[in-house]
Amino acid sequence: MLFTIDARLDHSPNQLTVFHTLTGRPVLHLNESELREMLEAGDICMQELTSNDSGTLQSLAWELLLFQSASHTRHSSLSSFHA
Fold first, then answer.
1. Cβ count near 32 (within 10 Å)
2. What's the rounded Cα separation, in Å, for the pair 11 and 26?
3. Is 31 helix (H, G, I), strand (E, B) or coil?
4. Closest to 3 measured CA to CA, from 70, 54, 46
5. Mean pLDDT in each 10-residue stretch from start to end of the chain (83 residues)?
6. What per-residue confidence (pLDDT) applies to 79?
């Protein structure tokens, strides 16, 4: 597996971190409010987070990374827009 998901959902503050498996470096971190927002919006579902299937977890990790990348791109595009 290329990524490992560490989802701490059993105690407050809830958080989710995606690590690069080979280096151990965190590549994505969602704090409690970001995680709650994504769960409420349906961007993440509890069934995926609690899955034991490595394919499901890898797909989820890639989706989260793509979502973060799109979010950063959108925000940086808006902030650099000049009318």
1. 13
2. 20
3. coil
4. 54
5. 90 93 95 91 90 93 89 53 40
6. 44
d(CA 32, CA 82): 34
Scored b (16 or more CB within 10 A) or e, 10-21 reads eeeebbbebbee
The tokens for 65 are: 């990374």
What are the φ/ψ torsions at residue 21 (nearest 5 degrees)? -60, -40
Instruction: Give the model's pLDDT for residue 72.
Output: 64
Cβ-based neighbours of 82, under 8 Å, separated by 6 or more: none
**pLDDT (0 to 100) of residue 25:** 96
Residue 27: strand, helix, or coil = strand
Q: Are 61 and 18 in contact (CB under 8 A)?
A: yes
Spatial strand order of the sheet with 15-20 comes to 3-8, 15-20, 26-30
CB count within 10 Å of CB 38 equals: 16
